[in-house]
């Protein structure tokens, strides 16, 4: 495992920084893209596929074990994410939305798994790729069902709006649909995972430094505080990891609905 904490001298404490998110290739002389986050993302995909296979491959009338977990996840995504945005079209998109939710959730939870301890979504390339996929589906559905002109007209249409107000409103809403929505979809997930990982690393290193590296009577108290805050932050971070998976999937459902219905 690569070292991510930089120490300028044996007696000087240095806070962890952006080096936490910089990774060299796994193998010396190997491809630049084959880094730790890529391996974690591949492992996450294997986990999601394995869980879904165990839950849905051979369903029983009375669910048990992984099938119970799978049905709970399916019901949650259907009732809390798909149906509020997609209505009667929810069932058609459940495969995609369930996959998005589970994938982002496992990505995020990797940040608290021992010896892995890196949330994939804290590397912006991964949420960007997923958000771009949803963005492409939204545009495809909008043009397919409404045509280019009809799709744009449905986005900017607001009955009773005066001409001068429409001239201000139209560029803003078009920018929101075609630019800002993609940006917020990516940044909401990335920023939360990035900041959470940095905070947990900071306080865990405080505890490690003052309790093990430079143990002193005064510093021991600071180290204990670091450990306690790390535990509390880790628990809170797990809640945020679930919440961000939910929000990412919910936004995906909303964007898909906007393409289907031709509205913003």
From TrEMBL:
InterPro entries (alphabetical): ATP_synth_F0_asu (IPR000568), ATP_synth_F0_asu_bact/mt (IPR045083), F0_ATP_A_sf (IPR035908)
What are the transmembrane regions?
Answer: 38-57, 93-116, 122-141, 161-183, 189-211, 218-236, 242-260
- First and last residue of the signal peptide: none
Provide any one GO MF term from the record: proton-transporting ATP synthase activity, rotational mechanism
GO cellular component labels: plasma membrane; proton-transporting ATP synthase complex
Keywords from the UniProt entry: ATP synthesis, Cell membrane, CF(0), Hydrogen ion transport, Ion transport, Membrane, Transmembrane, Transmembrane helix, Transport
In which compartments does the protein localize? Cell membrane; Membrane
Name the SUPFAM superfamilies for this protein: F1F0 ATP synthase subunit A (SSF81336)
Q: Name one Pfam family in it.
A: ATP-synt_A
> Where is it mostly found?
membrane
The UniProt family comment states: Belongs to the ATPase A chain family.
In Swiss-Prot or TrEMBL terms, this protein is called ATP synthase subunit a
The protein's organism comes out as Nonomuraea cypriaca
């Amino acid at each position: 495992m690569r070292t991510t904490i930089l120490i300028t001298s044996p007696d000087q404490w240095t806070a962890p920084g952006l080096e936490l998110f910089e990774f060299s290739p796994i193998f010396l002389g190997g491809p630049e893209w084959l880094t730790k986050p890529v391996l974690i993302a591949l492992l996450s995909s294997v986990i999601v596929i394995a869980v879904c296979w165990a839950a849905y491959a051979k369903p029983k009338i009375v669910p048990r074990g992984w099938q119970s977990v799978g049905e709970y996840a399916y019901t949650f995504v259907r009732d809390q994410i798909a149906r509020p945005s997609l209505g009667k079209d929810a069932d058609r998109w459940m495969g995609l939305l369930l996959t998005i939710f589970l994938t982002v959730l496992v990505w995020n939870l990797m940040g608290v798994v021992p010896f892995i301890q890196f949330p994939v979504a804290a590397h912006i390339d991964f949420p960007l790729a997923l958000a771009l996929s949803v963005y492409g589906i939204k545009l495809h559905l909008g043009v397919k069902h409404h045509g280019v002109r009809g799709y744009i007209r449905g986005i900017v249409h607001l009955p009773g709006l005066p001409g001068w107000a429409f001239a201000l409103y139209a560029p803003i809403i078009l920018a929101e649909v075609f630019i800002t929505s993609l940006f917020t979809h990516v940044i909401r997930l990335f920023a939360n995972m990035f900041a959470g990982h940095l905070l947990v690393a900071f306080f865990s290193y405080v505890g490690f430094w003052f309790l093990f590296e430079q143990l002193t009577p005064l510093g021991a108290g600071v180290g204990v505080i670091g450990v306690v805050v790390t535990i509390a932050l880790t628990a809170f971070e797990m809640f945020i990891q679930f919440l961000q998976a939910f929000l990412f999937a919910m936004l995906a459902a909303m964007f898909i609905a906007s393409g289907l219905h031709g509205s913003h």
